[in-house]
Amino acid sequence: MERKTGTRAARPVPAVGIAADSGLIVGADGLARPPWAAVDPLLQAYYDTEWGMPVRDERGMFERLVLEGFQSGLSWATILRKREAFRAAFHRFDPDTVAAYTDADVQRLMADAGIVRNRAKILATINNAAATIRLREQGGLAEFIWSFQPEETPAPRTLAEIPTVSEASIALSKALRQLGFAFVGPTTMHALMEATGIIDTHLVGSHRRGCSGIWPRVRPS
User: Fold this and answer.
1) What is the biggest distance separating any 2 CA atoms in the chain, rounded to whole angstroms?
2) Per-residue CA distances from 66 to 122, 174, 183 (Å)
3) pLDDT along the chain (221 residues), means of 10
4) Which of 63, 68, 194, 215 is catalytic?
5) Active site residue 68
6) Is the CB of residue 28 less than 8 Å from the CB of residue 16?
7) What are the distances in angstroms from CA 126 to CA 17, 101, 103, 130?
8) Which of 21, 71, 95, 174 has its CA 20 to 30 A from that of 60?
């Protein structure tokens, strides 16, 4: 963010720079964030208020599952900018409504420029809605996914230390596939676990480390 200069005295403003060797970016507000959340206001707001916070309800978890699936092969910024359009197109991600979609709904979605028009992912969403309904007999989607929470969470101190897959995400992916879910690969499920607070991969030193209340904050040594 560029600051205005002038002859009038101004309050000191924290410098913008890189925090040590971690790769974190220190913003003008003095808060350290990873590069992906340090520039774009939309991504910064998402990082500061939502990413990594626990999601415990069925509809919320179904939405995250669907959006992570659509994100595959694309940037998260693309999905986030289309999020409200996705919500409108998929009836606020109500599994009962989505599971009842017909061919006419598929055509409607394929014609909606507000979302990612990928037929395979649209069909997978309808399929996953039906699978979500079936999971209610086992406690529900959110409870099922949370059952794969590992005993420990990563504590990355640099960008290179942030994992993109884990034993837990591999196991979750396998279990969901066995239940009939699609577009739930290990990397996608790892991203889902990060986004919903099941693991905490905020860099040690980020102002959001430990924000979920699920995992303790690990401070730099």
Assistant:
1) 68
2) 9, 17, 9
3) 33 48 91 95 97 98 98 95 98 98 98 98 98 97 98 95 97 98 98 98 95 80 49
4) 68
5) yes
6) yes
7) 45, 7, 11, 7
8) 174
